[in-house]
Write a structure and sequence with these properties.
Blueprint: E1 2-7, E2 10-13, E3 18-26, E4 28-39, E5 46-51, E6 57-59, E7 67-72, E8 77-82, E9 91-101, E10 107-111, E11 115-120
Parallel strand pairs: 2-11
Antiparallel strand pairs: 1-3, 3-8, 4-5, 4-9, 5-6, 7-8, 9-10, 9-11
């Protein structure tokens, strides 16, 4: 089993900043892609940002220039720095990690439980 533990959400005023963290643990042989998704009330879950094991990043157009994704491979942890937050960034943010399990090198894709980010105007 692979577990993800997210932290760092909260309530912030527009223009403020937050930093989300997601730590993966369990029977992990290797991690490939780590990413953050978000889901606002009444909307579909959408990709916010992702980062590969080699450090290549991808961002949703709506967050480019404001959010930064990074990872610490030694700690199996991915971070999302959220700057210049807007009320429309309000959502539950979910961590997603994909890689190979230790056992038989089988692939896995795990989701965190989510952390609430609320931006007030």
């Amino acid at each position: 089993q692979v577990q993800l533990v997210e932290s760092g959400g909260g309530l912030v005023q527009a223009g403020g900043s937050l930093r989300l963290s997601c730590a993966a643990s369990g029977s992990i042989f290797s991690i490939n892609v780590m990413g953050w998704y978000r889901q606002a009330p009444g909307k579909q879950r959408e990709l916010v940002a992702s980062i590969t094991s080699g450090g290549s990043t991808n961002y949703a157009d709506s967050v480019k220039g404001r959010f930064t994704i990074s990872r610490d491979n030694a700690k199996n942890t991915v971070y999302l720095q959220l700057n210049s937050l807007k009320p429309e960034d309000t959502a539950v943010y979910y961590c997603n990690v994909g890689g190979l399990r230790t056992w038989a090198r089988t692939p896995f894709a795990s989701w965190g439980r989510g952390t609430q980010v609320t931006v007030s105007s």
